[in-house]
């Protein structure tokens, strides 16, 4: 049985005027998307080949994870040269071809702006290492003398997000231990000092360089990080995973002027360029500050991503997201930094635990997962999120229902989180496994070369999730996503806000948007919508329906409301 009861006609699905406000953006983790040259690493040639599949899914845009020149110690989030493409991924000409082909298919292109830090291989950082303490070269980064009689103690107690100290001591030219530099992430990712004018000037040039090549906007990496408290005070919470949010390290007032200047730069283009921020701050009000009319267009609503499978928690996160995003938030249920949704929703998700300060920890749990249940819930969650006002970011493989690969051999793991936490945290390799395109074959169609070895090993069971197999199965996760996107286009693209429906029961979320009623049943018993909600006929359901009147457990149903007709 197909999930779409009423399939939209070809005419209905014709391309419409584009708006970032309600766009569906497909996140391409290039390294794992598709490999055209047979070296086992995804590349721009592979992306060009795969763009048709993204367009066929019904997406409006892609967000491309960093593909600039990089030693890949954090897989591209450590950039050595912002104005070139990493040779492992291709050439500038191949990049231009991706943009050209994407635009031809009606897909906008977002790149990733990693400006909090660069790679330690970047020419500026190499020059800083070679220069004297106090030099202008060092002033572009955050170099400080250490504490203690010989400067052997770090300048403060800040932890790196990836574990361990946020400071590393360098060896000076005379061979003696010298100053320390700040790195919010890995040692290979030195933080810029954004108070140095050369840094701001450099990044304006970087933005212009890619805008001139046709890029439509940027996702901004750690957008709350670019400035630190100039006094670099100790974190009163101390060190370690329970130390709490370190205010000195994040979310400083000056960062807002930076986004005002980027917004002005982007607004000078026609059409204006778009910015969406990756921002982790402890309160919705602080997040809202980044979305003032002259700052960023949008920011991810991570609050929804980290919630356990629970109606009340989802509702609160949705309400927060709508309030912060002024009615049009950027929703996401997955990305390259968290465990796959199918696995998360299949795991025991404690409800009573306070949210950890690092919300990401809630989305990278260990522990057994019931994958049937996880898939059912992930289907329902996708149908819920895609019915909300706002844009939606789908992480590659989410549309295939890929589970997290939790049992990667230790030796295969590459994420610095794994190494810096001494294996206490699994890190993010398991959500970055090269995609399966075909059921058979050594790399399940990821690589064009028959003998290729993928950069992270694919498990033997990956073939069962292949795109080609799912495309032919009307009940697959892929078909569900295609149907969701097509039906969203025809029925949910209006400007109508959501109107919550009640009484919906403790385990049910229900709302109306225009003439569509969306019901998600989080519970384990079927739910029958009350007749007061009006006469409903199902448009689409995340699980097969046994009758049109009830919503099965762990299922979302989109129904058409027949106004003026009694139920
Ligand atoms: C957030 C990115 O999404 C993540 O992948 C990266 O490791 C850190 N920022 C550092 O750039
Ligand atoms: Ca390749």
Task: Describe this structure in a few short sentences.
By secondary structure, the chain is an alpha/beta fold.
Could you please describe the fold and organization of this structure?
There is one protein chain. The chain is an alpha/beta fold and 567 residues long. An eight-stranded parallel beta sheet has the order 11-10-9-5-2-1-13-12. α1 (44-57) runs parallel beside α2 (92-104), α5 (197-212) packs parallel to α6 (254-267) and α11 (371-385) runs parallel beside α14. The protein is globular, with a radius of gyration of 24 Å. It has helices at residues 44-57, 92-104, 123-130, 136-139, 197-212, 254-267, 284-289, 302-305, 311-324, 341-346, 371-385, 416-420, 467-471, 477-491, and strands spanning 24-28, 61-64, 68-69, 81-85, 108-113, 143-144, 167-171, 177-182, 217-220, 274-277, 298-299, 330-332, 391-395, 499-500, 508-513, 516-521, 535-541, 555-562. Among the domains are: 18-118 and 195-231 and 249-413, TIM Barrel (Alpha-Beta Barrel); 123-182, Alpha-Beta Complex (Oligo-1,6-glucosidase, domain 2), CATH 3.90.400.10. Bound molecules: 1-deoxynojirimycin and calcium ion. 1-deoxynojirimycin (NOJ) binds next to loops.
Supply database-style keywords.
binds 1-deoxynojirimycin; five-stranded antiparallel beta sheet; globular; TIM Barrel; disordered N terminus; binds calcium ion; alpha/beta; Oligo-1,6-glucosidase, domain 2; 567 residues
């Amino acid at each position: 049985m197909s999930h779409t009861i009423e399939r939209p006609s070809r005419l209905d699905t014709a391309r419409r005027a584009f708006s970032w406000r309600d766009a569906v953006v497909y996140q391409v983790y290039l390294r794992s998307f598709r490999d055209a040259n047979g070296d086992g690493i995804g590349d721009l040639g592979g992306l060009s080949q795969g763009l048709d599949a993204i367009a066929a899914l019904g997406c409006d845009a892609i967000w491309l994870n960093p593909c600039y020149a990089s030693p890949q110690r954090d897989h591209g989030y450590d950039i050595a040269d912002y104005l070139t493409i990493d040779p492992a991924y291709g050439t500038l000409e191949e990049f231009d071809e991706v943009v050209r082909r994407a635009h031809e298919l009606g897909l906008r292109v977002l790149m990733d702006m990693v400006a909090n830090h660069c790679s330690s291989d970047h020419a500026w950082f190499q020059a800083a290492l070679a220069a004297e303490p106090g030099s202008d070269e060092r002033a572009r980064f955050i170099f400080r003398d250490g504490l203690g009689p010989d400067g052997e103690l770090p300048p403060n107690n800040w932890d790196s997000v990836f574990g361990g100290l946020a400071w590393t001591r360098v060896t000076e030219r005379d061979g003696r231990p010298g100053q320390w530099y700040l790195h919010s992430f890995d040692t290979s990712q030195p933080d810029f000092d954004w108070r140095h004018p050369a840094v701001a000037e450099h990044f304006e040039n970087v933005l212009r360089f890619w805008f001139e090549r046709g890029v439509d906007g940027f996702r901004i990496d750690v957008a709350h990080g670019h400035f630190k408290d100039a006094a670099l005070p100790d974190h009163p919470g101390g060190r370690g995973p329970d130390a709490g949010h370190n205010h000195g390290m994040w979310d400083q007032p000056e960062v807002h002027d930076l986004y005002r200047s980027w917004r002005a730069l982007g607004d000078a283009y026609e059409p204006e360029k778009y910015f969406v921020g990756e921002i982790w701050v402890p309160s919705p009000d602080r997040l809202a500050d980044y979305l003032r009319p002259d700052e960023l267009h949008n920011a991810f609503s991570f609050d929804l991503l980290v919630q356990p499978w629970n109606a009340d928690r989802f509702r609160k996160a949705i309400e927060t997201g709508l309030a912060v995003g002024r009615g049009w938030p950027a929703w996401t249920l997955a990305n390259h930094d968290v465990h796959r949704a199918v696995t998360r929703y299949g795991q025991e998700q404690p409800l009573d635990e306070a949210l950890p300060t690092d919300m990401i920890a809630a989305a990278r749990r260990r522990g057994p997962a019931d994958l049937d249940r996880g898939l059912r819930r992930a289907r329902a969650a996708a149908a819920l999120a895609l019915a909300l006002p706002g844009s939606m970011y789908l992480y590659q493989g989410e549309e295939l229902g890929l589970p997290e690969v939790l049992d990667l051999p230790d030796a295969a793991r590459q994420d610095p989180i794994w190494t810096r936490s001494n294996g206490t945290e699994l890190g993010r390799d398991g959500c970055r496994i090269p995609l399966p395109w075909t059921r058979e074959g050594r790399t399940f169609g990821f690589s064009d070369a028959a003998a290729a070895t993928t950069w992270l090993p694919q498990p033997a069971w990956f073939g069962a999730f292949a795109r080609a197999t799912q495309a032919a199965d009307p009940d697959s996760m892929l078909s569900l996503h295609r149907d969701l996107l097509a039906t969203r286009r025809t029925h949910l693209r209006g400007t109508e806000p959501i109107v919550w429906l009640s009484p919906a029961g403790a385990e049910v979320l229900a709302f109306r948007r225009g003439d569509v009623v969306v019901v998600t049943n989080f519970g384990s018993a079927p739910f029958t919508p009350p007749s007061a909600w009006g006469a409903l006929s199902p448009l689409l359901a995340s699980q097969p329906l046994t009758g049109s009147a009830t919503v099965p457990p762990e299922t979302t149903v989109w129904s058409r409301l027949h106004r003026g007709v009694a139920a």
